Every structure is written in C-alpha cells, then in structure tokens.
Amino acid sequence: SAGIITLDPGYKNTGSCESAITYLDGEKGILRYRGYAIEDLAEKADFLEVAYLLIFGELPNKTQLEKFHNDIKANSEVDEDVKKIVDSFPRTAHPMGVLSSLTSALTAFNPSCVDINSEEDMYQAIVKIMGKFPVLAAWTLRRRNAKPYDYGNASLGYVENMLYMMFKKPNEEYKLNPVVVEALDKLLILHADHEQNCSTSTVRIVGSSHAGLFASLSAGVSALWGPLHGGANQAVIEMLEGIKEDGGDTAKYMEKAKDKEDPFRLMGFGHRVYKNFDPRAKIIKKSADEVLGDLGVEDPVLSIAKGLEKQALEDDYFVKRKLYPNVDFYSGIIYRALGIPTEMFTVMFALGRLPGWIAQWREMRLKKEPIGRPRQVYVGENLRPFVEVEKR
Ligand code: SDX
Q: Catalytic residues per the record (predicted)?
C-alpha cells in the first residue's frame, strides 16, 4: 500500500527480512513507527508509550501503559554480583564496551530468559531487560564518576529515573528539570527504531540462532558503538570541538571532508537510506535551539554546527552525494546541554534504541524465521593444485 517492496514469501533468511515495525522513505524523508509519523510521536507521545507501540504494535491505553511500567519497575533489580563486574572495569573503559559486557552478563543471572518458547516467556524477558538496561547504563556512568550504584526511585517515570540513577548525588535531593526530562524523552523516541540498520540487523541475526534476547542485545550494543553508526554522535562533538579549537575555520574542514586522500569525514553527515533530509535531524535541530534557550546554555559548537550544515547544503560535493545532517549531527549538542558526558552519548542512543531492537527480535522470533545466513558473491581463486612448502 505504501509502495513497500515485498520479498518472495519463500525467501530464506539471508539477512534481509519483511517487517511491519518501521517504515522509511529515504527520498521523501518519511519515518513511521507502526504507521504513526515520527513527527506526531515526538510531539505527542512519551518514550514508554512509543516503546510499547514498537514492541506490541499498538499505542497502549492507560491501563496497559501502567501495567507495562509497573512490570518493568518490578523487574529492574540487577543481581548484586553484577556490581563486581562493573567494578572490574577500569574507570576509563568506554561505556559502550562496559554496557555490552554487562548486557551479556545478565544472561548468567537470568537463565530463564534464554530458552524462550511462549509469549509469556517473551514478555517476562522483555520487561526484565527494559527494567535492567537503564540500571546498567547508569552504573556504567557511576563507575566512571566513582559514585555509588543504586536503583533510583520507583515513584519516578521511566525517563526521569534514568536521569535520577545517573546523576543523583549521595545525601543530596536530586531536582528533575522538566525541560531536561522532556528533551531526553523526545531524543529517546527519535532513536527508538530505524528498520534494518547495522545494529538492528545484528540483533536479528544473532537472535535468529536462538542465542537469547540479552545476548542478541549485547551484540547490538557492540554494533552501535562504531563511529560510522551510533558512535557518530560522540564523534560529531569531538569533531566540532576540534574545529572550535582550530579557530572555527569550517571551510578548511569542508575541504578536508572532500579530499579523498584525507580520512576525515564530516561526522553526522550522510546516510545509507536518507538521500534527502533525515526527519529526525530536523526535529533535533529545532529542539537544540529550544533546550539551550530554556536552559540558558550558550554552546559555541552549536553555531559551528549550523555553519557547517549551511555550507554543506550549498556545496556541490555534498549536494551531488546527497549528504545531509543525520540523527547524530545535533543530538550531542542537546545531550551536552543536559549534562550528559560525551563518552555516554552512544549509551543514550542505545537506551533509545532498546525497544526497537526488542521489537525487531520479537517479530523475528514470533515469525519463527530460520537462522540468518547472508549470501556472498565469490570473487576469489578458482581450484588450484596444492604446492608443498619446499616448493613455494
Ligand atoms: C546512524 O542505517 C541507519 O539507519 C543508521 C542510523 C540509525 O538510526 O540506526 O540512522 C544511525 O548510524 C546514522 C549515521 C551516523 N554515521 C555518521 O554520521 C558517520 C559519517 N557518515 C558516513 O560515514 C556515511 O555517510 C554513512 C556511514 C552514514 C553512510 O555510508 P554509505 O551509505 O556507505 O555512503 P558511502 O560511504 O558509500 O559514501 C558515498 C559517498 C562517498 O564518496 P564517493 O566515493 O562517492 O566519492 O559520499 C561520501 C563518500 O566518501 N561521504 C562522505 C560522508 N559520508 C559519505 N564524505 C564526507 N563526509 C561524510 N560524512
């Protein structure tokens, strides 16, 4: 109906798939979760509602949403021994490496979440990881900051509690800023799913071997870590900071990005699917102005980012290659204004993408898809006779 290409139903899982979760149109800059426009969801829904929509296919009513949140809260406890694993990492360890390890370790403490044979088993595994993943993310940050680990406050909302667990100081009352909560909630919605991107395809293919939900998600965290994927949001801020330190000469970096001999790329630009604007980038750019204005934050890298965007949109190299700002280009500027440290930006992406990964894994398992086995085009040697080592 929306011009979606359907695969031959007899296809074997070659890494491509049919999915009913997210629809993208790269030319028109369209993104829909279960048929709902991202613009509507970002403005009118909250993150937990969107998580429920992605995973179960419908927007929840009040009762369903309350039950989902209560079940998540009831399953957010993480085994005390996991703290020993967190403590085993150097404080300087990259949070994505820590988070991937902790997510995989959850399997050992929740063995019932591996052999999932019923929708009830699936639901229990889902509320467990929706509850525990934000705890692991918070503990990862608190390890870096040498702060004690805790479970937050059950009276808070799902996103409020993320901030509370990350930033509450011992013996101090933590004051939630509604501007910060709303901005983070919107960012998490915008990151929640994106059809068959690198990390989601990873979750699906690992899950297709029935390796268990937590192991599949741990693999997704590792895939997202890369600077060409979710790691780009950290790389964008480091790039903008570098340009600022170098006197803010954006034209010089535009030339570097076009120089084939120079490995420098304009991080936060370009996309495999969006060959026009990334609808998420448009929303985030608007939100960046609002949040920094509301918080009274002056961030010089925001004007550098806007200058780069303006120059790229007028530059033949970028226009010809249809390179536009993507979701990662402005998100780091907001995270920074919210007080989130740069090395945690990709963890924030993972917190947003969690329900999308879960939804895609659940769809793959409910459809009883066969084990994933991407195909190749062989371009190597033809048959050759073996040569003894003495004769080589
Ligand atoms: C995400 O798939 C998803 O949906 C991902 C994501 C999601 O929600 O899951 O949207 C999240 O990962 C967004 C992308 C974040 N990554 C970055 O911002 C890193 C910088 N971007 C590039 O590395 C690149 O644009 C990719 C990886 C995003 C896309 O790569 P493609 O589709 O493989 O494009 P390509 O590398 O083949 O580039 C095509 C041309 C090349 O030039 P030519 O060889 O044709 O002369 O465009 C050039 C590239 O050199 N190019 C860039 C560029 N991106 C592409 N040149 C300068 N700067 C860039 N950023």
A: 271, 328
pLDDT computed for residue 1 by the predictor: 39
Ligand 1 geometric centre to CA of 268 (Å): 8
First-to-last alpha carbon distance for the chain, in angstroms, is: 61
| pLDDT reading at 58 higher than 70 | yes
Query: Which helix (DSSP H) or strand (DSSP E) does residue 37 occupy?
Result: strand 36-37
Q: pLDDT for 64-96, tens place per residue? A: 999 999 999 999 999 999 999 999 999 999 999
Q: Give the single-character DSSP code of 269.
A: B
**Do the strands 22-25 and 30-33 form a parallel or antiparallel pair, or are they unpaired?**
antiparallel
Active site residue 271: yes
Instruction: Kindly report the number of other CB atoms within 10 A of residue 29's CB atom.
Output: 18
Q: How many CA atoms lie within 13 A of 248 on its CB side?
A: 8
74-104 b/e (C-beta count within 10 Å ≥ 16 → b): ebbebeeebeebbeebeeebbbbebbbbbbb
Average pLDDT over residues 314-343: 94
Assess whether the C-beta atom of 362 lies below 6 angstroms from ligand 1. no
Q: How many CB atoms lie within 10 A of CB 49?
A: 20
Report the alpha-carbon distance of residue 284 to residue 107 in Å, rounded: 35
For the segment 123-147, what is each residue's pLDDT rounded down to a tens digit?
Answer: 999 999 999 999 999 999 999 999 9
Structure confidence at residue 114 (pLDDT): 86
Q: What is the dihedral of CA 154, 158, 161, 166, to 10 degrees?
A: 140
Under 8 Å CB-to-CB from 326, ≥6 apart: which residues?
Answer: 232, 268, 269, 270, 271, 274, 278, 280, 281
Nearest residue to 344 (alpha-carbon basis) of 163, 173, 171: 163
Q: Is the CB of 321 under 6 A from ligand 1?
A: yes
Contact 330, 219 (CB under 8 A): no
User: Scanning the structure block, which residue is given the tokens 């063995």?
Assistant: 111
What sign does the CA torsion over 169, 347, 354, 333 have?
A: positive
Atom of ligand 1 nearest to the CA of 268: 18
